[in-house]
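2024-03-11 09:14:02 DEBUG pipeline.ingest accepted 1 chain
2024-03-11 09:14:02 DEBUG pipeline.ingest length=171
2024-03-11 09:14:03 DEBUG pipeline.predict start
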Amino acid sequence: MALSMRLSRGGSKKRPYYRIVIADARSPRDGKFIEKIGTYNPLLAKDSDERIKLDADRAKHWLSVGAQPTDRVARFLDAAGVKERAAKNNPNKGKPGEKATERAEEKAEKLKAAEEAAAEAKAAAEAAPAEEAAAEEAQAETVEVAAEAVEEATPEAAAEETPAAEEKAEG
């Protein structure tokens, strides 16, 4: 007789509650079983002590007799330290492929370049007020020099320039 350690469902609709049982592999899921060795309530919090209750001594006995645990029960046994379980998932399966990795690297390089450009712009903006102040001073000096030149200009020079401008306008 092939023995299996599996879950037998109880509870009402949408409110599952499981018994961890030892049963003949040919019997139905919720049918006849040999012995109940624990319970599992998936509705409780994962860190709750009441979520999984397991009689470790009986589980060891049934494993020594040849009972085969299902995947879920094997997880419970591994967590309880009764039986070591090898991980079945391929750890490399979730890793991105070569092209996705290349795209991610390119995106990271572009982001880094954008951050550097932003830092340079910020540094230039901080240096710009000093440059603007110097430019304003130079502009003010230019305006003062121009004003002095206008004051120094004689009315005769202004009169000479005016008829020449009128002749050009007429011609």
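2024-03-11 09:14:41 DEBUG pipeline.report The first strand starts at residue 3 and ends at 12.
2024-03-11 09:14:41 DEBUG pipeline.predict end
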